[in-house]
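Our consortium's second objective concerns turning raw sequence data into structural hypotheses that experimental partners can test. To show how far this objective has progressed, the report includes one record in full. It was chosen at random from the queue rather than selected for favorable results. The single chain below, 104 residues long, was entered without modification.
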Amino acid sequence: MKKADVKADDILSAKSDEELTKPFVGKVEKIYENSVLLKIIDYDKADKTAVSDLNQKIVVNFKNLKTVSKKKMKEIQALAKSDVKVEKIKKSATEKATTDTSKE
């Protein structure tokens, strides 16, 4: 892939010969002269520890980048739209009393 083909926020497939053993998918965060900084968003379970050690970010040379297949892109979008529900939890009477006394 060429530098001109890459834009910020693109989703690309990549491989890294040193850090990760399997190909992965990342979102372009920054473009350098010969490489890009990717936020790793989809990877093989075998690389879970390595991805964690890298803080979900990696620099990859342009020659190791490819466009993501439409099938893979749909899978990623489905994961991104997963339902997450947040509920407010009521404070117990003892927590309220502790909070009220700490304000004074």
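The partners drew two points from this record. The beta strands are 11-14, 24-31, 35-42, 57-61, 65-67. DSSP finds three helices and five strands in the chain. Both points have been shared with the crystallography group to help prioritize constructs.
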